[in-house]
Amino acid sequence: MGIGVRILSWQWFHRLGSPRWFYQKTSAWLPWLGASSLLLLAVGIVWGLGFAPEDFKQGNSYRIIYIHVPAAFLALAGYYIMAICGAIGLIWKMKLSFVVMRAAAPIGAALTFISLFTGAVWGKPTWGTYWVWDARITSMLILFLLYLGVMALSGAFSREQSGDKASALLALVGTVNIPIIYKSVDWWFTLHQPATLKLTEASTIDPSMFYPLITMIAGFYLFYAWVLTLHTRSLILQREWRTQWVRELLGQSSPAAKI
Amino acid sequence: MRADSLEQAGGAAVAARVNSAPARVPGFYTLFRTEFILAVRRRSDIANPLLFFVTVLAMMPLGIGPEPEMLARMAAGLIWVMALLATLLSQESLFRGDYEDGSLEQLALQPQPLYFPVLAKVVVHWLVTGLPLALLSPLLGMMLNLGAAGYWPLFASLALGTASLSLIGAVGAALTVALRRPGLLLALIIMPLYVPVLIFGTGAVQAALDGYDYGPQMAILGAILAAAAALAPLAVAGAIRISLEN
Lengths: 259, 246
Hints:
The complex is a heterodimer of chains A (259) and B (246).
Chain A: H1 3-8, H2 11-15, H3 19-51, H4 65-92, H5 95-127, H6 135-154, H7 160-173, H8 177-187, H9 207-239, H10 244-249
Chain B: H1 6-19, H2 28-41, H3 43-64, H4 68-91, H5 96-101, H6 103-109, H7 115-143, H8 151-176, H9 185-210, H10 215-245
Helix pairs in contact in B: 1-2, 2-7, 3-4, 3-7, 4-7, 4-8, 4-9, 7-8, 7-10, 8-9, 8-10, 9-10
């Protein structure tokens, strides 16, 4: 028994399901996460907006790519995070997983909106129009509506637990849309350009523009993790407001002195 | 005489037959027959979506103008969108009657999986809503000046597509059945999932009108139907169990 069994046991996994453990463990490294994400974002923005070279065809208006592309990546990744947390919550009945799913929904919706908005702003000087109903743009709009649907459904139930499970199921059902968005620019010849950042071949973007973009993408991922953790922590405090540790944390020591 | 659920319709006899059926796919035909008889008796539930469909399509030329060339270009899309909305409207009452008097809970308590009762209900819903819409669509196509090449693709794409819409919409109906005032929530959560079917349905009709082969779009509609028929009842069963806990 002893150490061997402890490592092999699922204790660490189940401890992850404790909201209190999560709250205490994240308090330590949350400031570092926030600081590093803001640093990367600052470096990326200054580099991309100020020092990267002008584009041959688009001039300076292409620079919105440094916000548009990372926001779009995170919007798609954020939906997967939400759906996977929903699946974990449904399968292992982990309360904390549902909390993370609820926290991820508005963040993903905001990022999708940002990518649609910056895309529209970029489209006006380059394509001549703010909006066009091509494959990728329409699928991103559908993604935005999926996020809103999950948010609406989770708030519609009187019992919080039922709302968790119902919105987790809806998030999973909506997951079929993500590969369609991702691949839509390859399957249909549309106005939106196909992918230039590739994983297995050399990307077709110039290196001097590529590095600030990668910095921004990394910065956005860290920023998403930071904001998600912050939101999860605040939702944990709201859900667990009756417990002793939250009351002590908020400075209310006796049961009589509650909100 | 209106009958809103299994219990009222067949009473103890049907419930007993469902409960004590042997262990092959039990009760599917019984449930299907009962649901179908119930649905056919609720004449308003058949007529209302069709009337909505026809009335709104009649309002379209009044609103956008009666020029034949413009109507011809828009006919396929208008008919498809209206069929989608009519299906959506009728989804809400799919499980509500059974939920309210406890029959849904009885079905969920059966040892047989919920997959089969759900499939029976959805098939009946399609036979009573989607198929009449598809059968009526060539008439409306004529009113909206749809080209001759478009009639058969319109009917076929609607027949396949509304089946998928019934299956997908059942997921939303099951998720919202326990809510007291769902309002437009069902529409909001189901609309994004309807979009691929709409795109390929109208794509098939447009391709036929432009003179191209519309086989690929029909094949994809069939594939969506196959996937929905296999997977949607599972999601619906899960959603029913979640709603019953509420």
